[in-house]
From TrEMBL:
UPF0033 domain ranges (all copies): 7-31
UniProt cross-references to Pfam families, sorted A to Z: TusA (PF01206)
This protein's name: Sulfurtransferase TusA family protein
CDD domains hit by this protein: SirA_YedF_YeeD (cd00291)
UniProt record similarity statement: Belongs to the sulfur carrier protein TusA family.
Length: 76
């Protein structure tokens, strides 16, 4: 999946992956995609809920060993 920007939030505990994701999303334009890498096990629920409440689209998520990867598209 093609991402406009990659955010490395590995090693950060809740709520920092969300805080960093929100800040990174503010730098993107509508339609662009942010790829987030985190090791926080709670990020799946947190980022899914946050994206939904913020009008963003969670395109995909996967787990690669101990790293959780998310692709979130900024809404129009």
């Amino acid at each position: 999946m093609e991402a406009t920007k990659v955010l490395d939030a590995k090693g950060l505990a809740c709520p920092m992956p969300i805080v960093k994701t929100k800040k990174a999303m503010n730098d993107l334009e509508a339609g662009q995609v942010l790829e987030i890498h985190t090791t926080d096990k709670g990020a799946k629920n947190d980022l899914t809920a946050w994206a939904k409440s913020g009008g963003l689209e969670l395109l995909k998520h996967e787990e690669d060993q101990d790293v959780f990867k998310f692709w979130i598209k900024k809404g129009e």
